[in-house]
Amino acid sequence: MKKYFKLLVYTVASLLMITGCDKDENRVFLEGGDAPVLTATKTAVSLTPGNEDQTAITFNWTNPEYELTTGVSSHDVKYTFELDTLGANFSSANKYVTTITKELSKSYTERELNSIMGNTLQVKTGRQYTFEARISSSLGTAEAAKLTSEVFKFTATPFTPPPKVALPTTGKLYIIGNGTPGDDATGWNNPVPVPSQEFTKISETVYEITIALNGGKSILFLPLNGDWGDKYAFDGAKNGNNPDGDILRRGGEDIKVPATSGTYKVRVDFQLGRFTITKI
């Protein structure tokens, strides 16, 4: 169904273009467009260990054909693709979202789709689920004239994906930094005291430690005590993380701890590629 917007465009930043005169006859209006139609190559997706490089599914959608008072828009359309579990109404905290410019299709390999299901949506593996997908189109950085497709449903049974971050080959993990008690004035003395600064291995992919932390200081994680050759830390700028938890990266930058000193539980989840720091 055609939708009409009658949106007045004043600046390039807000949407499309700028006019040199304020007269109505020189202004550009967005008059309408059609919601994109989303389809896919399959409604039942097969995910099989060993076939990770094969294409699992390809999503296709139509151009919304935005219309201006000057004619059909030639400007690039931004598409937002969302994937969630059945019944979540695309409101779950773990839903998958990606942005696509210009293109009218998106393919996922079995590896990519399986990782999205296991590591992003965090569904249990070995069970069949119904997933819902939709695509939204918009113009400009302000996402003006947003149009959303009908929901496309498909089924899949994910298997356990590889961890997002490679596991420590030592099977151990240690915490170091001036955010820790340490055994010297700087807190960066390596090796660190054990067992007080050694994590407990909760599962094959999760490590935890309860420890007193110095507010506003820094930490990182070592797989081998006494060795600076390998480390795990924040996937971003030094001390630029959310102190309550953020994205983990092998070889990353120092992690800033919460501002208040106290006892915290530090959890490192290699499967999801995240760390959390929770006040006890």
Describe this structure as you would to a colleague.
- With 280 residues, the chain is mostly beta strands.
- It has two domains: 2-156, Immunoglobulin-like (Sandwich), CATH 2.60.40; 174-279, Immunoglobulin-like (Sandwich), CATH 2.60.40.
- It has one helix and 23 strands.
- The chain has one helix at residues 110-120, and strands at 2-3, 7-9, 28-34, 38-40, 44-45, 55-61, 67-68, 71-72, 78-85, 96-101, 105-109, 129-139, 144-148, 152-156, 174-176, 200-201, 206-213, 218-222, 232-234, 245-250, 255-256, 262-269, 274-279.
- The strands form five sheets. Strands 5, 9, 10, 12, 13 and 14 form a six-stranded mixed β-sheet that branches.
- β22 (262-269) and β23 (274-279) form a beta hairpin.
How many helical stretches? 1
Q: Termini separation (Å)?
A: 54 Å
Q: Uncertain spans, ≥5 residues at pLDDT below 50?
A: 7-21
CATH topology of the largest domain: Immunoglobulin-like
Helical percentage: under 10%
Largest sheet: 6 strands, mixed
SSE run: EEEEEEEEEEEHEEEEEEEEEEEE
Please state the average pLDDT score: 90
User: In the CATH hierarchy, what is the architecture of the largest domain at level 2?
Assistant: Sandwich
Q: Domains counted in the coordinates: how many? A: 2
DSSP strand content: 35-45%
Total beta-strand segments: 23
Give me the CATH superfamily of the largest domain: Immunoglobulins
Tertiary shape: elongated
What gyration radius follows from the Cα positions, in whole Å?
24 Å
CATH class type of the largest domain = Mainly Beta
Estimated structural class: mainly beta
